[in-house]
Amino acid sequence: MRLLPASLWPRFLKRRLPTSLWGRSLLIIVLPVLIMQAAVTWVFFDAHWQTVTARLSEGLAGDVAWAVESYADQPTAQNLAVIADRAERSMSLSIALQEEAELPREQQRGPIGVVDRAMERALAARLDAPFWFSTTRYPAYVDIRVQQPQGVLRIIAPRERAVATQAHIFVLWLMVATVLLLGVAILFIRNQVRAIERLAEAAEAFGRGETAPRFKPHGAREVRAAAVAFLAMRDRIQRHIEQRTALLASVSHDLRTPLTRLRLELALAPPFKRQAAMKGDLDEMEHMIDEYLAFARGEAGEAVQPVELAPLLRAAGEDVRRAGAEVEVAAPDGLTAALRPIAFKRALTNLAGNAAAHGEHVRLSARALPSGGVEIVVEDDGPGIPEAMREEAFRPFSRLDPARNQNRKGVGLGLAIARDVARGHGGDIDLDQSEMGGLKAVVRLPG
Q1: How far, in whole angstroms, is CA 224 from its chain's centroid?
Q2: 214-to-3, 220, 227, 325 alpha-carbon distances in Å
Q3: Of all helices (H) and strands (E), which one includes residue 345?
Q4: pLDDT (tens digit, 0 to 9) for every residue of the chain, 447 residues total?
Q5: Strand, helix or coil at 213?
Q6: What are the phi and psi torsion angles at 391 (to 5°)?
Q7: pTM of the full predicted structure?
Q8: Contact 376, 313 (CB under 8 A)
Q9: CA 22, CA 185: separation in Å to the nearest integer?
């Protein structure tokens, strides 16, 4: 396996660490607890369990050596009976002689080799004769056999004589305490993270223009302070938007009254040389007022609802076709998105009208994205916009006369309104070079 260079390890770990606050907070709590549990368990097994097991094995080996030596001094049945009786009463050992038998050839070792290694070392240090043992043949006993000239001396000892059998209780209590600690930590972390998630959801909803109800700040003191500051900021921004909309609506209303009067006077006046030009100026002024009001009003008061995209694109295509451009619409039936219909239709009409104003052929298409969102593309075969000026085209009142063949109609708010609507839906608009040779506006909306 090829190891990464030391300089790449921080980047490697950063890509694999949790990205959410919930995941990182949980990691901060869980990782130290797991490390502590592993360290305590290791120290316990290394310094206590293994030591106790080794001492018990040495004690059992000493008893086995006593029994073997006592029998070897006088290898008679009467002596064996005396040794077996003493061992049973004093050492809880069961001793029997298997005459003319041999030691088993197969080795039986347990899954944890600590007990077997300790037992083998202790028996090898105390016995000179060949021996065999098994710690797994019987669950509650250790089977030890020693080769003698008369046969095999078999000794059955309780397992607790060789192994510290209560070690698992310590590990069990340690695991129970760890689970309780982690449960409490996870509960508290989740409550804190939930407060931040509610604040993020409220901020995202406000960014999309949704009128979300006020929520009660909760959580840590710093989180509550951030929530209170956000609510105050949201109220100030909403008041500013309402004041701006009311001001523009009032100005629009005040300007429409003299415009209507002038239009009526022109209609009733006898024909004269500049009458048509004056009517054109009035139409342009009225169009400018409509754009100002649309930009100021935005999309306030309209609810989000599922809308099928194909009819919207066909309606925008019909408007462009009436303006004299050739239109191609490609949108699958049944493709829907959560939209504010009136606001998004205005944005789509602005994009399509902008394309028709600078090109002879316009293409409108829509498709579903693999991520779950939708993508709407408006293309034309006009002169396009240089890459360095595409971001500037979204600025309010930007006309880009040299790049777009003299923007004859409007005040430069079409793209600004369209992007404002797209961002209000949680998406965005990007400009690119179209395969038709002109400009391509790509609207991406989340699912």
Answers
A1: 24
A2: 53, 18, 10, 48
A3: helix 341-358
A4: 455 565 555 666 666 666 677 777 777 777 787 788 777 777 766 666 777 788 888 898 999 999 999 988 888 889 989 999 998 988 889 999 988 888 888 877 766 667 788 888 888 899 889 999 988 888 888 899 999 988 999 999 998 888 766 666 777 777 888 888 888 878 888 887 888 888 888 887 777 666 667 777 877 788 888 888 888 888 888 787 777 777 767 777 777 778 788 778 777 778 877 777 788 777 777 777 776 666 555 555 567 788 898 888 888 888 888 877 888 888 888 888 888 888 888 888 888 888 888 888 999 999 998 888 899 999 998 888 888 888 888 887 666 654 444 444 555 677 888 888 888 788 889 999 988 888 999 999 887
A5: coil
A6: -70, -35
A7: 0.49
A8: yes
A9: 12
Strand partners, 132: 145
- DSSP letter, residue 52: H
241 and 209 Cβ atoms separated by less than 8 Å? no
Non-local CB neighbours of 424 within 8 Å, separated by 6+ positions: 207, 208, 209, 298, 299, 340, 343
Enter the tokens of residue 117.
Answer: 């290694």
